[in-house]
């Protein structure tokens, strides 16, 4: 494969400003990281947040780059150069060509939204497998190719990693993929070169305002997944949109392909009726374009009704019958770190959950409230180097719905852990004015916080440990140490029993 092959295959999809040198040179590797350049590489220079890849062109050439794609003017001497209007976009498009355009040969399900992406993709995978499809998974918890489970670095990986994963999925005999498409990925064109068959919109609430400057900009990034549908080579595409979310109708209006709306109110195409929630799961009747059928899921909480509806839309679009969906839904017992129960023989309920936004925390607490038999004890924190605006809001939500709140650290990263907690406390104290009966503690060390909650718990209480879910680490400074809420809770319960 030569630079010319790659560029000409992608020509219609990216704007080329200038071409220099003989493009008929063979390419063995495509990379945007000068540190990964080996002789015969095509180096794509991308402007980043921290550094500008164009500054590494000289190093890439020194290390044997056989061609360069750049956005800004650069001197590559006799080495061929293609200058493009947008090198981030070019990276995805060239990458997809380099890996054989895998997304065109897979049924691609893309799920975006602030919350519910991971859960919805797990459900989509199970439902598509229920109709005999071989489904890969790309998302926050892991990337899965058949039996192979690759730890995830990002919810949606960088363009080249993504295209490489899709190509490996095809090679492994998979024919579909359920993937989370984060707003970062859409804003940074990590998914350029991917074409989707179905796109799901779960919801939009505040998060990531450290990266997107406003909610509108955040929404516009998410919207890209939908406005691209119907512009490419795939036909029969569809959007599946949560119409109960205030942004649902805007997403619907932006689509040029058929849309199935879903929800619990109004007249969406896919509607949950007669919803019954319990600690053992969720039951409802799904009224859909294919018929009405009962859904009996082990997933807990009203938010999971929405995740189920989104996945049902995807499965029906892929040709599943109501009976196949009904059966496959029962195969998903839990999603790692999402309302995951920890049981070590204690007489109170312990739940580990990935709620790290205000909306997720409110929904988790609402679910707990509906199901609780006694007190709710909430242990939570907010991540460092991330959206600061959500901190007081999460603090307020925790106090509004809990009986005991223990504020603690959640990946402080390079921020001062106590400074983060002080920002959360603004909301905590405000809500405590209104709910004076709530018991509140600040325990910065997460292990101590969990152990304290375990010691405080009484028979019948529900203890929620929110924010980290499946994560098995705590990031302090730039160091990642092993830390797993589920393990720590189990140890604390055992310790309490041994001391009794
Ligand atoms: C804001 C953001 O997402 N940044 C990502 C982005 O960084 P960047 O483009 O700014 O890259 P940079 O480090 O400035 O480098 C610019 C270019 O120079 C190149 N370079 C750099 C150094 C060098 O010596 N040589 C060289 O060629 C780099 O390879 C790159 O092409 O590209 C990097 C490489 O792909 C990512 O690692 C990095 O993710 C950062 C670490 C990150 O934490 N991202 C998180 C917030 C994220 O993406 N999260 C979302 C959403 C999560 C969710 O809600 O589920 C996700 O999808 O995971
Ligand atoms: N549909 C939903 N609406 C609101 N909150 C939800 C929904 N589904 C799940 N949640 C809450 O959000 C948390 C994260 O859910 P999930 O991992 O499925 O979302 P996500 O969008 O993948 O999140 P992330 O962007 O962090 O990867 C859950 O633990 C739960 O508390
Ligand atoms: N994907 C999210 C995860 C946040 C999880 C929470 N534990 C934190 O570290 O803030 C983010 O990077 O913002
Ligand atoms: Mg996720």
TrEMBL record:
Q: Motif Meso-diaminopimelate recognition motif located where?
A: 410-413
Q: What cofactor does this protein call for?
A: Mg(2+)
PTM note says:
Carboxylation is probably crucial for Mg(2+) binding and, consequently, for the gamma-phosphate positioning of ATP.
- Pathway(s) of this molecule: Cell wall biogenesis; peptidoglycan biosynthesis
Residues that coordinate or bind UDP-N-acetyl-alpha-D-muramoyl-L-alanyl-D-glutamate: 34, 155-156, 182, 190
- Where is the Mur ligase central domain positioned along the sequence? 111-315
Which residues make up the binding site for ATP? Answer: 113-119
Gene Ontology, cellular component aspect: cytoplasm
Instruction: Name where it's found.
Output: Cytoplasm
As its record notes, the protein acts as a catalyst of: UDP-N-acetyl-alpha-D-muramoyl-L-alanyl-D-glutamate + meso-2,6-diaminopimelate + ATP = UDP-N-acetyl-alpha-D-muramoyl-L-alanyl-gamma-D-glutamyl-meso-2,6-diaminopimelate + ADP + phosphate + H(+)
Cite a single Pfam family from the UniProt record. Mur_ligase_M
Q: Where is the Mur ligase C-terminal domain?
A: 337-469
**Family the entry assigns:** Belongs to the MurCDEF family. MurE subfamily.
Q: What is this protein called?
A: UDP-N-acetylmuramoyl-L-alanyl-D-glutamate--2,6-diaminopimelate ligase
Organism of provenance? Nitrospira japonica
Q: What is the lineage of its organism?
A: Bacteria, Pseudomonadati, Nitrospirota, Nitrospiria, Nitrospirales
Q: Gene name, please?
A: murE
């Amino acid at each position: 494969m030569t630079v010319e092959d790659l560029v000409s295959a992608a020509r219609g999809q990216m704007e080329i400003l200038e071409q220099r040198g003989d493009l008929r040179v063979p390419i063995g590797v495509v990379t945007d990281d000068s540190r990964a350049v080996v002789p015969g590489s095509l180096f794509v220079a991308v402007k980043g947040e921290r550094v500008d890849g164009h500054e590494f062109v000289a190093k890439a050439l020194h290390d044997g780059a056989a061609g360069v794609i750049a956005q800004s003017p650069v001197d590559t001497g006799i080495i061929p150069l293609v200058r493009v209007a947008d090198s981030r976009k070019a990276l995805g498009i060239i990458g997809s060509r380099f890996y054989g355009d895998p997304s065109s040969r897979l049924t691609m399900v893309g799920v975006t939204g602030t919350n519910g992406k991971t859960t919805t993709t797990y459900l989509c995978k199970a439902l598509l497998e229920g109709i005999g499809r071989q489904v890969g998974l790309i998302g926050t918890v892991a990337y899965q190719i058949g039996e192979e489970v690759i730890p995830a670095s990002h919810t949606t990986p960088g363009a080249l990693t993504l295209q490489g994963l899709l190509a490996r999925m095809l090679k492994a005999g998979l024919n579909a993929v359920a993937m989370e498409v984060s707003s970062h990925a859409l804003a940074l064109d990590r998914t350029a070169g991917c074409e989707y068959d179905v796109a799901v919109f779960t919801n939009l609430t505040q998060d990531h305002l450290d990266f997107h400057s406003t909610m509108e900009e955040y929404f516009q990034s998410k919207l890209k997944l939908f406005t691209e549908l119907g512009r490419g080579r795939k036909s029969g595409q569809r959007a599946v949109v949560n119409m109960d979310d205030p942004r649902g109708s805007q997403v619907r209006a932006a689509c040029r392909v058929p849309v199935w709306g879903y929800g619990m109110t109004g007249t969406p195409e896919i509607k949950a009726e007669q919803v019954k929630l319990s600690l053992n799961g969720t039951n409802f009747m799904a009224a859909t374009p294919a018929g009405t059928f009962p859904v009996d899921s082990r997933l807990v909480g009203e938010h999971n009704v929405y995740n189920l509806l989104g996945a049902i839309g995807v499965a029906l679009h892929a040709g599943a019958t109501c009976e196949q969906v009904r059966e496959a839904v029962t195969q998903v017992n839990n999603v790692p770190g999402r309302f995951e129960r920890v049981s070590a023989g204690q007489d109170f309920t312990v739940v580990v959950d990935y709620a790290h936004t205000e909306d997720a925390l409110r929904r988790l607490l609402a679910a707990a409230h509906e199901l609780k038999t006694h007190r709710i004890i909430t242990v939570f924190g907010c991540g460092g180097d991330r959206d600061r605006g959500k901190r007081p809001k999460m603090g307020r939500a925790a106090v509004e719905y809990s009986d005991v709140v223990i504020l603690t650290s959640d990946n402080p990263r390079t921020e001062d852990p106590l400074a983060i907690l002080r920002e959360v406390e603004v909301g905590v104290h405000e809500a405590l004015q209104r709910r004076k009966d709530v018991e509140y503690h600040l325990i910065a060390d997460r292990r101590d916080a969990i152990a304290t909650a375990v010691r405080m718990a009484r028979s019948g209480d529900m203890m929620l440990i929110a924010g980290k879910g499946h994560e098995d680490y705590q990031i302090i400074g730039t160091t990642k140490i092993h830390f797993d809420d589920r393990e720590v809770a189990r140890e604390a319960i055992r310790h309490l029993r041994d001391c009794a």
